[in-house]
Specification:
Blueprint lengths: L1 H16 L2 H7 E7 L10 H14 L4 E10 L2 E11 L13 E13 L2 E9 L1 H16 L5 H25 L1
Parallel strand pairs: 1-5
Antiparallel strand pairs: 2-3, 3-4, 4-5
Helix pairs in contact: 1-2
């Protein structure tokens, strides 16, 4: 299990640094991202696009890995990231202000490579922080309808992924 913790520690740092070579090294080519970004495929390629996108939006992204726990082929992490918004994000213009977001990842590994990723983070806190820093210049911020559309898209993707897994099992 300590080997899995070392792999995921390296992976978490590669994720935040957008280190595509290390991500390729540590991930199974059939990786499934169970929480892809909107308009991204739940594949390794889609995950790498998500990683590159977050690095472009928050180029100074830093992670404080708070906890890492392993059991069998599963590793869980709890983290806090900070970074400054340098590109538009969900209709919110770049403010340059630093935000702080907490989240968790769950990973499944097989033969020393990441096969599955589940990510949960405090998106509401992130939106509140970006909104607070940009509301003098912004006007309306993303609405409940916009968030609902993102969540609905994610739910549809999860349903499709579950059907795909059931068929391939």
């Amino acid at each position: 299990m300590s080997g899995n913790i070392e792999i995921i520690t390296r992976f978490e740092h590669a994720f935040r640094a957008a280190d595509q070579a290390t991500i390729d090294e540590l991930c199974d080519p059939g990786l499934i991202d169970h929480n892809p970004a909107p308009d991204h495929e739940p594949t390794l390629a889609g995950f790498k696009q998500k990683v590159a996108g977050f690095k472009a939006i928050f180029p100074d992204l830093e992670e404080d890995l708070q906890d890492i726990i392993a059991s069998s082929d599963t590793v869980a992490t709890r983290w806090v990231v900070t970074g400054s918004l340098r590109q538009e994000f969900m209709g919110i213009p770049a403010s340059g202000q630093t935000i702080r977001v907490e989240g968790m990842n769950f990973y499944r590994l097989k033969d020393g490579r990441v096969t599955d990723i589940w990510t949960q983070f405090d998106g509401v806190a992130m939106m509140q922080q970006t909104r607070r820093h940009s509301c003098l210049t912004l006007g309306p911020v993303p609405s409940v309808q916009a968030w609902t559309a993102v969540m609905r898209s994610s739910a549809v993707h999860h349903a499709r992924s579950a059907v795909h897994h059931a068929r391939s099992a």
